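Hi, here's the filled form for the chain we discussed.

Project: internal
Contact: R.S.
Residues: 276
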Amino acid sequence: MSDTKYMPVPAPTEPPPSYENSKPVPPKPVGPPLRAPLPLDLPALNVVRGKRVILASASPRRKQLLALLGLPKFEIIPSTTPENLSKSLSPFEYVLQTATQKALSVYAREINNEELGEPTLIIAADTVVVAHNGNILEKPRSEKQHIDMLTSLRDGEEHKVYSAVAVMTPLESARDPGYALETAVEETTVTFDKAVTNELIIAYVKTREGADKAGGYGIQGIGSILIEKIDGSFDNVVGLPLRTTLKLIEKVMTHADDDELPAEFDEDGEVEDVAL
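And the returned structure, exactly as it came back:
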């Protein structure tokens, strides 16, 4: 048997990032990059490719998810509207109104952009985590709050994750309000593993992966070790339900196509609107 003695790993000399400014460092790729899949060949996506598409969110996770739809070249223009809606709203209404406000805020800023032109598509989203007692969970503001948050999710019953998506496009006509807007809210039920120990929770908190996330965990990363099961869409928990987003893009672009139909004349020769 070897008599080799193992020395303890020295503690880091640099302090961890603050919770207010925490941005997890993405892992370095191992080996050669994999070939990206070919983009989805769908009419609604083909129409907007090469045109001005805006994601009204600074979330790197939403950026990665949206790129999976084959829209890799889109602008990131986060909404500057304060997210200060009343917590007395239902989670459904809270995320729906917040996502809609984000989309409308960026639309108002960019619709008359003389340099880049008006956007063809604006996509906004909002996600909240709702504990078993109905409380909406924000991002943790301290290490202690982070530990308490995850402990409550483990000790409580299943919790809900709601993501709202708002997709809008300008209309060529002067038809009020000048744009087409479609929204949807998706719900996923998440259950933490009751066998998760306090030691594991503390170890996860110290990774700081969940410091910038509502609910305090990232299901797409190390945080998956806390989860027993989910019922619903995985990418909804990450922050952008792709299936729902694609449906909204197709729906809103259909409105844009309908807007280009020629007007019809009534019996008196007057122009009347085409029924949609």
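Let me know if anything looks off before we file it.
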